[in-house]
Task: inverse folding
């Protein structure tokens, strides 16, 4: 037995039937400082990050194999947080 903790972060659930189809845009890069509030486990090919900047929120998706970064339309932090959790639970993608 070891006390090595589990370093995995949260994993996204597979998309559910009828899940919300989000629109993913090219990154705007409109502010230099983006704070990552939470993110999904980096062991997966695709990671999702809940981001906040300038009082707004959005979700960023990074495909590390394709080196492809996309983000949803910027919204309130509350809405972005809700969408992030919907992605986590397979309710949106
Ligand atoms: Zn993992």
Result:
């Amino acid at each position: 037995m070891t006390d090595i903790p589990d370093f995995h972060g949260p994993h996204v659930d597979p998309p559910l039937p009828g899940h919300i189809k989000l629109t993913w845009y090219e990154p705007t890069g409109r502010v230099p400082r983006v704070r990552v509030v939470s993110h999904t486990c980096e062991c997966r090919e695709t990671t999702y990050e809940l981001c906040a900047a300038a009082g707004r929120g959005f979700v960023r998706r990074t495909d590390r194999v394709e080196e492809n970064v996309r983000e949803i339309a910027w919204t309130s932090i509350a809405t972005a947080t809700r969408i992030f959790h919907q992605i986590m639970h397979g309710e949106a993608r």
Q: What stands out?
A: The pocket of zinc ion is lined by residues 8, 11, 41, 43 (CB under 6 Å).
